Amino acid sequence: MNQMMPRPNTRLTARPIGLTMGAEVTGIPVNGDVSPELLTDFVSILHRYRVLVMPELDLDPADLVAFSRRFGPLEIHSRFENTLPSNRHIFCVGNVARDGMKASFNKGVEQWHADSSYRETPSDASLFHGEIVPPEGADTLFADATAAWRTLDPAMRDRIEGLIAVHSLETLRRWGARHDPNRGPNVDRQAAKFPPVRQPLVRVHPATGSKSLNICPAVISHIEGMDEADSAALIETLIAHTTQSRFVYCHRWRKGDLVMWDNRAVLHTASLFDHTRYQRLMYRTTVAGNAPLLSA
Ligand code: OGA
Ligand code: MN
Predict the structure, then answer these.
(1) For ligand 1, atom 8, which residue shows the shortest CA distance?
(2) Could you tell me if 280 and 94 are in contact, meaning their C-beta atoms sit under 8 angstroms apart?
């Protein structure tokens, strides 16, 4: 899987970079005009590869937001204080504060998740742009939750298909407090706006029909019908399966890289960096979900 694959009738090329997912895409004019045909082709590459890397792009916030909007309405992040004052659709991640902007900095590590799973309708996809990138550390890891489902033991598949997990910002707040006692209580203020939601443990991608494991250990309070200890043990087993190195792509950032991932098909996590020595600043946009995962 590693020769260049030209796409017919377009200038897009997708070069696979991971074992089961991930491609580097060139030829998409992110800060210019993307024709509807090119966009369609790009979306089909996203569905096929799940994580797309567009190397070293010079993008300003308006470019990032305009491109992201082509995929659907954007979320405004629940941690409003970490959004960019000049463009609230951008969520800032890192250890930088300037011009009235304070990025969201989390010292906890290995928190596998899909973005905004605590919303009734979780995000479809996220785009992440490297503004200030430390020379080492702060890789973003992606795990192929789709391949993980496909390779799961049939008895385990039978056991978990149909289970419902409760995703809760309060659970995430407690996880954050355990890992970083200095982290502010701002998630608290969101609790009323984002009450716990029920999400299927195995989700079906609406475009591809592929199933994937929808597991966010720091966000899931429990699985319905199971106590907390049994829920945690099951989730731990599923995370261990999903995050085997054969399913993981590790992105080592260069300044300007834009990475887009399909939250409906992969999990991801940040990794540590030496925040006492280096600066990091990333801009994220979050494409809102189209439909709740469970019918009412
Ligand atoms: C995110 C996220 C990973 C990272 O912003 O959604 O999970 O490497 N970031 O910071
Ligand atoms: Mn995330």
Answers:
(1) 270
(2) yes
